[in-house]
Design a protein that fits this description.
401 residues, Rossmann fold, 2 domains, five-stranded parallel beta sheet, 21 strands, binds ligand PMT
Length: 401
């Protein structure tokens, strides 16, 4: 399964480092070429001799060899690797990765990585629960790092709780799944809309909404990781552009409409995740509207429906995916939108569900397909939600061929 893949394993200093040897062995057995980087502290927990023996290559720890000046080039390691797995990832290493601190070879190499990065945390349950650790994990997820959550069980401290590093075979299986997925969209072009739109009232004010863009950017990043050419048409957000994604920035619904219509023809699919305004002011004042004593009315007119327009012009081989953000009669409303906009599938999220919708790092979705199939998912990080949506998109694409 991993034949010919270059996998870099970063080992940081925790008791679970002993499991890193089994991980490397499994990866090698599955056909991967494995190199190991250890932090200086990791060597207190497992010897470099063990790791060199199981990986069949010398272990890298220092930036250079003081004996002969041989330089361990973190940039070329970054180019060499098809996947970088940090296992175990201690609270300290996760914190440094989240903040771009580069004071050992494992960390400088992380900053040079172009391939998917996977972290398998291992620590005591209270360290895992600490808000600092949780916030670092969220930052890393935003940066596109795949976090393999530690299962609960008996810890080295003797306490019971979450914090044990996931078992080596499960980490290896996760890496294999990444490669299978990565291939699945090579040669395809996918358009994604994300974020809010701002409808200007005057030069100072606008009508907007609470979309942060996180869901759409997670989709764009995951699509690019799977080899798709991704065109992200985004309303105003402050999010970093995912690696390998072409970004077109827009502000208002009319601009988003024009940008999408212009580019849709050359694509295989469009995923319409943006929270596009349904109404826009009929007139935009050219000067700042002055404060007065009377109440003020602004007349709104409907915006053009991007999803519906694509539904009319799409070709047999093109797929359109909509989102439905609902507050009541959720399933019925989403089903209506699926029909009215001629979508192939719609992703429903409800503001009544905790951890779903605007702004949060998680979402809770129900996917409804044209044939009536309904799949409900639990609350998950938006990164994982994106993977589930893309898996469904890939399935529907293959049904169309
Ligand atoms: O950005 P985040 O903070 O991560 O939040 C994610 C999200 C909640 C914005 C996202 O998951 C989501 O639900 N996006 C769609 C929000 C929305 O506008 O839903 P809707 O039910 O009003 O629209 C239905 C569909 O029509 C959507 O695909 C929308 O993009 C599309 N639409 C709407 C209006 C319009 N003029 N043109 C459109 O294409």
């Amino acid at each position: 399964m991993l034949k010919g893949k270059h996998i870099l394993v970063g080992v940081s200093g925790g008791i679970a480092a002993y499991k890193a040897a089994a991980l490397v062995r499994t990866l090698v057995k599955d056909g991967a070429e494995v190199r190991v980087i250890m932090t200086p502290v990791a060597k207190h927990f497992i010897t470099s001799l063990t790791m060199a023996t199981v990986s069949k290559h010398p272990v890298l720890t220092e930036f250079y060899n003081p004996e002969n000046g041989d330089w361990n080039n973190h940039v070329s390691l970054g180019l060499w690797a098809d996947a970088y797995v940090v296992a175990p990832a201690t609270a300290n290493t996760l914190a440094k990765m989240a903040h771009g601190i580069a004071d050992n070879l494992l960390l400088t190499t992380y900053l040079s990585m172009r391939c998917p990065v996977i972290a398998a945390p291992a620590m005591d349950m209270d360290m895992w629960k600490h808000p600092a650790t949780q916030s670092n994990l969220q930052t890393l997820q935003k940066h596109g790092v795949h976090i393999i959550e530690p299962p609960a069980g008996e810890l080295a401290s003797g306490l019971e709780g979450k914090g044990r590093m996931e078992e080596p075979e499960k980490i290896a299986a996760f890496i294999e799944r990444l490669f299978v997925k990565k291939k699945s969209l090579a040669g395809k072009t996918v358009l994604v809309t994300a974020g809010p739109t701002y409808e200007a009232i005057d030069p100072v004010r606008f009508i907007g909404n609470h979309s942060s863009g996180k869901m759409g950017y997670a989709l764009a990043g995951s699509l690019a990781n799977r080899g798709a050419q991704v065109l992200l048409i985004s309303g105003p957000t402050s999010l970093p552009v995912p690696r390998g994604v072409e970004l077109v920035r827009v502000t208002a619904a009319a601009e988003m409409y024009a940008a999408v219509i212009e580019r849709f023809a050359g694509t295989d699919a469009a995923i319409l995740c943006a929270a596009v305004a349904d109404y826009t002011p009929e007139k935009k004042s050219t000067h700042k509207i002055k404060r007065g004593k009377e109440s003020l009315s602004i007349t709104l007119k409907p915006t053009a429906d991007i999803a519906a327009a694509l539904g009319k012009q799409k070709q047999k081989n093109q797929l359109t995916v909509g989102f439905a953000l609902e507050t009541d009669n959720e399933l019925a409303n989403a089903q209506k939108k699926l029909q009215a906009k001629n979508l192939d599938l719609i992703v429903l999220n409800s503001l009544n569900d905790e951890g779903a919708g605007f702004g949060s790092d998680t979402n809770k979705i129900t996917i409804i397909k044209k044939d009536g199939t309904v799949v409900t998912c639990p609350v998950l990080p938006k990164q994982e939600v994106a993977e589930i949506i893309i898996d469904t998109v890939v399935d529907v694409m293959s049904e169309k061929v």
